Amino acid sequence: MKFARKGERGQRTGWTTGACAAAAARAATVGLTTGTIPETIGMFLPNGDWVVFAVVDGLHAGDDCVSATVIKDAGDDPDCTHGARMVARVQRTSGVAGEVFLEAGEGVGRVTRPGLGLAVGQGAINPIPRDNIIANVREAAGEWLATRSLTVTIAVPGGEILAQKTLNPRLGILGGISILGTTGVVHPYSTSAYKAAVVQSIAGAVAAGLTTIVLTTGRRTERFAMRHFPTWPEWAFVQMGDFVGAALAGALAHGVTQVVIAAMGGKLAKMALGVANTHAHKVALDMGVVADLARKAGASADVVAEIAAGVTVRFAADRMRESGLQVPFYQELARAAHDGILPMLQGRVRATVLALDGEGHLLATMGDPLP
Which pairs from 268-273 meet CB under 8 Å and 24+ separation? Predict the structure, then answer.
């Protein structure tokens, strides 16, 4: 694996912290079960791709414990974790045979507030990378696990310092970075090359005869949107990522007559602010705005106060669902997002906003009727 040289930046993809942690864990498992720590390790990503990573600093700490390290390469994404050391320690334990336990070690944050999709007190290893790490360890261990159990500890030396460059402290994830990644691949969303690709995709859709396009905030929302419009051609869907402003400007420039924006709660709340870039490093989430939307949806004063004191839209959505107000809340989110993007369209392009929950269910549609 090589790092980009100066002048080559802009298009190269990289690997998520979750993918690198899984590779390190698999390498350490091979070292424990075979006695030899490999110099390279092949592993499968959450998206199913098989990739190979270089392994450094393998260490046998006795007969029952092995550690291995993979250096994170973020590609051309300006990620503060680029070059971080993802260390996995795999240790034979005395638990029930066949079990694989995953723990967060040094430099991996701990969740201290609800609403992040992880239990309070749990290490900040998100569900998809957690499953991927365990699956890779299980596959590498094979029959060896039939009579043994394993504990895998993921550490990131210096992670507590790196976390200060992220929103983790504000979110209530303390002591380190998060282990993230829904596909295992990092795309350079924060580069001018990606924005150019978004506009190019819009131009291509128009050139193919389309006048309505679907803008999504990532691969998951694109997949969900495609499920809702199964007869629409693939080129009608454009992943704009965080670049709402660039995507809408591209729609204006190329003669699109209607945009359909598919997004989940967090991105909708950012769009409600009228911002052109919804990336967490560009604009902080205003929970006061989210709380006001909850109030408009019928939430009690106590729930509104809880949401205002929270840190994520996920937490707000959970509280509204518990209150039986999930759909009205998403309707308010969609309405606010629609109002937020309208100025960027200058009255020349119709707009429809689809509000999706984390499982891809369509909970609200606001704006112009769908074609």
Answer: 268/313, 268/333, 268/334, 268/336, 268/337, 268/353, 268/355, 269/293, 269/313, 269/333, 269/336, 269/337, 271/244, 271/336, 271/337, 271/340, 271/341, 271/353, 272/333, 272/336, 272/337, 272/339, 272/340, 273/340
CB 18 within 8 A of CB 124: no
| Least confident range of 53-57, 123-127, 189-193, 257-261 | 189-193
| pLDDT tens figures, 329-358 | 999 999 999 999 999 999 999 999 999 988
Take residue 133 and report the two structure tokens written for it: 């790490």
* CA-closest candidate to residue 179, choices 34, 20, 306: 20
Residue 82 in tokens? 């680029």
Inter-CA distances, 200 with 9, 150, 172, 238, Å: 19, 48, 38, 10
DSSP H stretches of helix in the chain: 17-34, 127-141, 159-163, 168-171, 192-207, 219-228, 244-253, 265-271, 287-296, 301-309, 313-322, 326-345
Residue type present at position 183: T
Tokens of 194: 């990606």
Q: How do the residues of the chain divide into helix, strand and coil, expressed in percent and rounded to 5?
A: 40, 25, 40
With beta carbons less than 8 A apart as the criterion, state whether 44 and 102 touch: no
What is the distance between the alpha carbons of residues 331 and 337, in angstroms, rounded to a whole number?
10
CATH topology of domain 14-186: CbiD-like (3.30.2110)
Distances (CA, A) of 5 to 2, 17, 72, 193, 368: 9, 21, 16, 16, 47
The domain segmentation of the chain, as residue ranges, is 14-186, 192-367
Q: Which of 143, 119, 123 is nearest to 133 (CA)?
A: 123
Q: What is the pLDDT of residue 8?
A: 46
CA 135-140-141 angle, to 5 degrees, is 100
Instruction: Give the pLDDT band (50/70/90) at residue 219.
Output: confident
* Alpha carbons 80 and 84: distance in angstroms, whole number: 8
SS3 100: strand
Neighbours of 358 (CB within 10 A): 13
